[in-house]
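**User:**
Everyone, produce one record:

**Assistant:**
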Amino acid sequence: MARTSKKTLGENQRFRLEYNINNQEADNFKLPNFKNFKVVQGPSQSVSNSYSIVNGKAQSTFSKTYSYILEPIGKGTFTLEPASIEYQGKTIKSNAITIKVVDAVDLPKDPNDPNYIASQNIKMVVTISDENPYVGEPIYAEYRLYVNQLAINSFDVDTPPNYEGFWSQVLDNKNPQFRDGKYKGEMWKYAVLHKVVLIPQRNGELTVNPMSADLIVGVPTGRGDFFGNMITRNVNQRLVSDKKIIKVKSLPLEGKPLNFTGAVGQYSYEVNTSRSVFKANESAQIKVKVSGKGNLKLFELPNIVTPKELEVYDPERKEKVTVTTSGLTGNIENAYTVVPQYKGKFKVPATSFSYFNPKEEKYYTINSDEIILDVTEGKELITSTGADYSNGALKQTVKATGNDFRYVHTSTVLEPIEKSDFYKTKLFYILLLLPLVILPLGVFASKKQRELSRDISRNKLRKADKLTKKYLASAKKELGNKTTFYSSLEKALHNYLKAKLQVETTDISKDRIAEILSKRGVSNESISQFIEVFSACEFARYAVSSDEKMKEDFDKAKQAITELDKNL
């Protein structure tokens, strides 16, 4: 297959010509005569092989490309004859290419500049399905990235633009893929970066704003590597699509129905009921439904009118709508729940729905049939010898039965409303005197608290008692178990000294403990009593001990800690 980067160019421009071979066994590649062109560069060869496994079978894809850079010799329209290869004894030819050469155009100082080459071979384009729609007529917009014989290594699309004056719905467009397409009459590769359905909401000129993207593009250098692959150079490009002006037409006034609410497209309309025969206090549904494609969701459905004898609830709106490139497709409906209270036949009048068809530029009106609801059982409303549906219900003579109707009372018995005043009641005087009682009690309690806080000896005694309970609690639990009791008791004494003196006592002797306590101003009697408890713990490990002896040692330890804490 033969491809070219340009089919129309200036006399001073160059273009790329490529021949692609998709079979590795093809041989004897022959070029046509480039008699009207000068070969500036080439041939350059690039080869690619890819392997994949589909359904457990290995598949390979081969591609070999011969590239040339050509420059026209003069103006005119020239045809490049087909190239040929030989495959399995047959000669296979490529397609012919027609090149039109026109007057010279302005060129940069360096036509081989990679940035210039990239700018000429990559474009951001927005395409609009209809640039002159009616108000309410859906149109479809695509933002496309066109590439001509360049490699896109990465791209980052900016946030899609706002669409002022349009109702818009972006379509899903994950993982855009490149495909073949035409750009200005020439074959390019393109990928759709953004898709959106637009419905104009007013007439006049509306703008579809441009979208931009940052890309890294691989530009061929014309040189090949050791393996014959084309060497490319990466350049950065920022592309911005053109701004599109949409000229929105007003809907025609001629033939416009009075009940038209803005529906534009192609639609069908129906009104039906879930059942027409039922009993009073049972329910039925009346459904008003519009189906088709166009600007669904953007117009109002007709309302039904029911007789006042029927209890009708607000309609429940249901939508089954899909957004496609041609607009919104599906149906919308209002479902009315009707509950009759009386027996009889009730008429729901016919309704109509109008829409504008933009393809035919014409209004259409669809009429529904009237609905008769037959309530077979229930309270009698009226009687009549003949049917009369003028007010929606069958007229009958009213009959009074039992207590259905009562007279209005003409006299009443009134009773005075008694109110008691809070002022000068018992509760009033109690609340008034209560602060006078509470205030002296508060003063007395506060004074007593201050006196207790000044009692230093009493406070020390209370603090010592707390520490005693804290450090001897674990030992008290082991009373009766000699080994664990004395071990816990000794540990409690060490922990107490560690907390009070801020020293590690497990690694020092009793003499050292006595020395430390003496420096702290503890009396010799209290020190001796404390050391005595230590000695009792050590002795008890190797001697027989009874429960009474353990209780006695526990009380001594408790007394020793209490006395010691008074001095510290």
Helices lie at 114-120, 426-454, 456-477, 482-501, 510-519, 524-540, 547-567.
